Amino acid sequence: QQQVKQSPQSLIVQKGGISIINCAYENTAFDYFPWYQQFPGKGPALLIAIRPDVSEKKEGRFTISFNKSAKQFSLHIMDSQPGDSATYFCAATGSARQLTFGSGTQLTVLP
Amino acid sequence: EAGVTQFPSHSVIEKGQTVTLRCDPISGHDNLYWYRRVMGKEIKFLLHFVKESKQDESGMPNNRFLAERTGGTYSTLKVQPAELEDSGVYFCASSRGLPRETQYFGPGTRLLVL
Fold it and tell me: How far apart are CA A65 and CA A105, in angstroms?
């Protein structure tokens, strides 16, 4: 049973457009929600993270929106650039420390 | 500061053989995690070390997998005997120690079992 569901599986966006990736979780014990970015041949790297006591967090062109009642959160990439092309993973964790990941979204930003 | 390193980067073995993966965490990181991504699916947790002790090994698929962390430094993950379904990318991550702290991932070992 997958505890964090991520969509879409792949996403193609034009340069300058907005990329949106959605995730939903089931375990209400999760209290920290990071997003990881992975480039080919590299390991996942933390991009941005949010706690459930806030509804939105913004860092540069990247924004996380969080809906605690719906148990959903999403990543928005504004003004998407070809250099943003990568695989994005949402994740969730709590006191257990292990990360529970979504299945990943392959983002391609066309020049 | 050097990042998390993993060796080998790729391994191709035949079913029934043994493979040992190695992970060197960031210096000073007491927490070490192993994860696996199979066939483009989600990255799944395997186990968690705090120093040399296994804190949580609930994600280990079966007893063909053996993880060790001698002296609380590097860690090895041995698969013996390997099966076809063990193919995937094995990631190691490390962190200092607080919950919800950033985990730093290595580049992974791509294992293919034929």
Answer: 17
> Are the beta carbons of A89 and A35 closer than 8 angstroms?
yes
A–B interface: beta-carbon pairs under 8 A: 64
User: How many separate domains does chain B show?
Assistant: 1
- CATH number reported for the structural domain that contains residue B58 in this entry: 2.60.40.10
Mutate to test the interface with B, among A99, A100, A106 (most CBs of B within 10 A): A99
Mean pLDDT by 10 residues, chain B (114 residues): 92 97 96 93 95 94 94 94 96 88 95 97
> Which of B114, B92, B96, B95 minimizes the C-alpha distance to B105?
B92
Domain that holds residue A12: 4-110
pLDDT computed for residue A21 by the predictor: 98
